[in-house]
Amino acid sequence: MRYINLRFTYLLTYCVQLSSELLRQADWDARVTHMISALISAGFISDEARSDMCRAVTTYHRNMQNGINYRPASVVRAATRVTLIRSSDSTWQLARLGEDYGLSAVYDGETDVHIIPGTHDSIVSDVDDKNSTRLACLLDTVLSSQLAH
Question: What pTM did the predictor assign?
């Protein structure tokens, strides 16, 4: 157990140090280059994977920025309901977008929000399958009611 604690302490220390180093970089490209070099030095990825990793990080960042900055030109008019299923651990989305993740601002129909305990990942991959079962039942109910109309 002591070995695990020492490794965890080392990892935390390394993350704090790396975070500080990244903040000192001049721009986003310099941060990406520095981070990938650190991952290679730590043995997490090979030097051969450098260009693929750079492309993956850049693409992910661009997609996240596009999602954050997207503003629809108009409100969608529809007679159907929209169902949002989200995790309970969604703090930045709630703070920025609201309870319905901003759907009411772009959609004039009814929006149903269902919250499943956990994180974005754990609502479909929890250890004891409670959330997976809850999600499956919810999807079954929603789809059944949609097909009935």
Answer: 0.54
